[in-house]
């Protein structure tokens, strides 16, 4: 009887959705640039780095948390695209880009390759574009309609966003290409202890179904442990805790006098340090790890003491400094790619998700606290999100929760950065210029390549997909039709098909047979790009998906088995060269967790991808690497203006730009100034603001700028002749003294240049800001 109720509920829900949705299948073919043939011009490794800012103006929706996300109001960490170009003695060339974005897309990969091909010879088959997976970055750039419609709180595909990102990616690659010089490189790894508690498996019940045959090892219960302690420890063990790092030093001719320059690393962790209620652009945990290793590399080169919290050298009374002493644009580079993070979350402390019982409690006067809830949860879409809820207690607010979340993010990022530094140091022992590069690449059409990919012929999403992951439940979680009939929007239970026959097995398909009509032919991914890259004694497989821990272990095992002799380090780069949601093992799929419900092509998907990676790896070992850049049809859906255009608001000459206020309260320095409207004001154009402190000798030092984890910049509202902006700086300790806010000169490209403005000073009394 309950199965009938469940099917009836799904049918009613499906009818409502189907009436509100329509098909949009029109699309266009993406370019297919093939790399130029290699030409041997050197006797050893060459390498170059580049970096571009990709922080848009506020106003766009933040992608990754779907309808639970927010609209950007400013930024905490700037977003960057970092590039590394390598070339060996045989002329084999590779380019890597890691971008501080939430999800990858095939169109960003293909369009970037087309952009740089003429100048660099790099085509789609020699380019890896991966993302860190921060959930506090823009979307609206996907080549698949559903992701433009569903990954953010409001829908739309903006070609201007695509042009902005592709242009910046291309600039980073071409900068790295121009920077190429003799280099030495080496791989090394570190293992992050589970006892540190930095990550955990958020889908542990599904993971356990892999049984005794799983490659991922977890210890049984230890003597003296309670059941809860064992459970918690095993969740921390059931992740890939290996950080893999390629160190690159640049040298003078002859590969002498080498200097540390940068690194490429992979580690598995979701970019969900910030809760969905966050409205600031933020590179999340990855941004901290990126910057801390870069600062360490700078210190090795004598540019900046590693213990110095300042971002720039001391300035004179007029605020001037030698630009070579500033590290606003670091001369070191850390490309931090994500690994098999499909079921791996940051191990946050309780009270950092900021789930809300009702929207109006966001401004409830600071009288609610986030706590673990108890008792039974009512059935309905507007009830509290488990396992936390807001309870009205004195002296608490959403800001308190956001503060706790950012403190936790800082803690996790700083801890992981120490491991990155340790791996970088270890890799320095084995540096060599005798590094060979090989690659194999293949693109697939799930419809056309059904023989090679024995998966379900059409992509389908399960009801569990709507539930959200364990640490990010949606408001639809456990929703019941008429408060009685299960909808399947949960993990396990009613999310499993009571008749698990057919290609999709245990998956209860959202909307049932109507999903195909609603989604249409181009609403979900139909194409996939896989690559295997060998660099020296390391080899990497790229997958355009979020791969779970055990599925990733099986992929790495297959690559290692078929890899050329001498390979010691094997890794998977997830979220690379496209996006097709999640890939789980067939055992995990049967549980129908959020990850299994988001596995679009059925239980055999992981095995099919593993087989293809094995084949690509074997082709490298055989000396006949497979290279196939096939057609991909982008179906992005309806175009919508997401980014503010440069013409938004008054022109530069009409704005009376200047600092209006600077004050200090409760250890936070807050400044406000008048600047351009969002659109003409784009953080990616250059440094926006800095905070300086007067030294005892009367000279000024820069103590913070707008790419500091303790600095937040927000757009406020139109004011006077322009737009009001606010900066907040809350360091761990705000020392007494005199501070000033300054707006440096900023280049606006074709729009001209904003000149620096007079400083506004504030003296911070010891009693007020300690």
Structure write-up:
By secondary structure, the protein is of the alpha+beta class. The chain is built from 13 helices and 38 strands. Helix 2 packs parallel to helix 4. The termini are far apart. The N terminus is likely disordered.
Main features:
770 residues, alpha+beta, eight-stranded mixed sheet, six-stranded mixed sheet, 38 strands
Concise account of the structure shown:
The chain has 770 residues and is of the alpha+beta class.
Q: What order do the helices and strands come in, and which of them pair?
A:
Layout: H1 2-20, E1 28-29, E2 46-53, E3 62-63, E4 74-75, E5 80-87, E6 93-99, H2 106-120, E7 127-131, E8 137-138, H3 145-150, H4 159-178, E9 181-191, E10 199-201, H5 204-208, H6 227-237, E11 242-252, E12 256-267, E13 280-281, H7 284-300, E14 314-315, E15 333-338, E16 344-346, E17 369-372, E18 388-391, H8 398-427, E19 437-445, E20 480-481, E21 485-486, H9 515-519, E22 527-535, E23 538-542, E24 546-547, H10 549-562, E25 569-573, E26 582-583, H11 586-591, H12 594-597, H13 605-621, E27 627-628, E28 633-634, E29 658-665, E30 668-675, E31 690-694, E32 700-705, E33 711-719, E34 722-729, E35 737-742, E36 746-747, E37 753-754, E38 760-764
Parallel strand pairs: 4-13, 6-7, 12-15, 19-27, 23-25, 24-26
Antiparallel strand pairs: 1-28, 2-5, 2-9, 3-8, 4-33, 5-6, 9-11, 10-16, 11-12, 14-32, 17-18, 19-22, 20-21, 22-23, 29-30, 30-34, 31-32, 31-35, 33-34, 35-38, 36-37
Helix pairs in contact: 2-4, 7-8, 10-13
């Amino acid at each position: 009887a309950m199965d009938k109720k469940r099917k009836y509920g799904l049918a009613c829900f499906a009818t409502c959705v189907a009436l509100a949705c329509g098909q949009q299948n029109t699309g266009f073919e993406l370019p297919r640039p093939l790399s130029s043939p290699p030409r041997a011009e050197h006797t050893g490794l060459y390498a170059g780095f580049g970096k571009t800012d990709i922080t848009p103006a506020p106003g766009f929706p933040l992608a990754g948390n779907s309808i639970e996300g927010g609209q950007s109001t400013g930024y905490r960490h700037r977003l960057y695209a970092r590039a590394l170009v390598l070339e060996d003695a045989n002329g084999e060339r590779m380019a890597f880009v890691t971008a501080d974005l939430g999800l990858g897309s095939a169109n960003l990969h293909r369009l970037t390759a087309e952009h740089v091909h003429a100048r660099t010879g790099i085509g789609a088959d020699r380019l890896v574009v991966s993302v860190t997976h921060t959930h506090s970055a823009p979307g609206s750039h996907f080549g698949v309609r559903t992701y433009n419609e569903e990954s953010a709180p409001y829908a739309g595909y903006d070609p201007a966003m695509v042009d902005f990102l592709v242009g910046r990616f291309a600039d980073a690659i071409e900068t790295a290409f121009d920077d190429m010089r003799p280099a030495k490189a080496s791989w090394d790894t570190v293992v992050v202890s589970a006892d540190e508690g930095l990550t955990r498996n958020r889908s542990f019940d599904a993971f356990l179904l892999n049984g005794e045959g799983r490659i991922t090892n977890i210890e049984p219960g230890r003597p003296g442990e309670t059941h809860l302690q064992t459970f918690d420890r095993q969740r921390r063990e059931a992740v890939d805790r290996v950080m893999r790092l390629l160190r690159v030093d640049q040298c003078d001719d002859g590969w002498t006098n080498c200097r540390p320059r940068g690194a490429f690393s992979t580690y598995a962790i979701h970019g969900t340090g910030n809760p969905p209620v966050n409205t600031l652009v933020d590179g999340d945990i990855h941004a901290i790890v990126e910057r801390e290793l870069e600062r360490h590399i700078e210190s090795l080169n004598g540019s900046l003491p590693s213990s110095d919290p300042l971002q720039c050298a001391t300035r004179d009374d007029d605020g001037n400094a030698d630009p070579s002493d500033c590290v606003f644009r670091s001369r070191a580079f850390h490309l931090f790619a994500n690994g098999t993070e499909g079921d791996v979350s940051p191990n946050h402390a309780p009270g950092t998700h900021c789930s809300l019982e009702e929207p109006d409690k966001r401004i409830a006067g600071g009288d609610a606290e986030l706590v673990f809830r108890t008792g039974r949860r009512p059935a309905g879409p507007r009830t509290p999100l488990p396992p936390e809820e807001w309870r009205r207690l004195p002296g608490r607010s959403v800001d308190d929760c956001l503060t706790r979340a950012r403190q936790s993010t800082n803690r996790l990022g700083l801890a992981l950065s120490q491991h990155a530094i340790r791996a970088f140091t270890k890799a320095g022992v084995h540096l060599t210029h005798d590094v060979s590069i090989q690659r194999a690449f293949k693109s697939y059409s799930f419809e056309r390549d059904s023989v090679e990919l024995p998966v379900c012929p059409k992509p389908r999403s399960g009801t569990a997909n709507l539930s959200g992951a364990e640490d990010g439940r949606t408001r639809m979680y456990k929703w019941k039709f008429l408060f009685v009939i299960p909808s399947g929007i949960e993990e396990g239970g009613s999310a499993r098909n009571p008749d698990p026959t057919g290609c999709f097995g245990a998956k209860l398909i959202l909307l049932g047979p109507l999903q195909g009509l609603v989604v249409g032919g181009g609403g979900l991914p139909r194409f996939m790009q896989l690559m295997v890259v060998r660099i020296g004694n390391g080899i990497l497989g790229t997958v355009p998906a979020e791969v779970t821990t055990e599925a990733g272990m099986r992929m790495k095992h297959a690559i290692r088995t078929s890899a050329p002799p001498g390979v010691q380090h094997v890794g998977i780069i997830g979220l690379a060269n496209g996006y097709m949601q999640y890939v789980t093992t067939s055992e995990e799929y049967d549980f129908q967790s959020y990850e299994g419900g988001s596995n679009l092509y059925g239980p055999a998907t992981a095995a099919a991808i593993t087989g293809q990676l094995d084949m690509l790896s074997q082709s490298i070992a055989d000396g006949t690497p497979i290279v196939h850049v096939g057609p991909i049809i982008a179906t992005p859906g309806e175009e919508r203006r997401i980014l503010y255009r440069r013409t938004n608001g008054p022109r530069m000459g009409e704005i009376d730009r200047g600092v209006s206020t600077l004050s200090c309260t409760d250890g936070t320095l807050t400044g406000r100034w008048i600047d351009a409207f969002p659109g003409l004001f784009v953080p990616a154009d250059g440094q926006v603001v800095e905070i300086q402190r007067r030294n005892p000798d009367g000279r000024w030092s820069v103590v913070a700028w707008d790419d500091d984890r303790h600095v937040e910049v927000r757009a406020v509202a139109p004011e006077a002749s322009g737009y009001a902006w606010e900066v907040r700086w809350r360091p761990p300790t705000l020392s007494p003294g005199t501070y000033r806010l300054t707006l440096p000169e900023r280049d606006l490209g074709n729009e001209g240049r904003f000149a620096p403005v007079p400083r506004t000073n504030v003296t911070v009394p010891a009693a007020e800001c300690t």
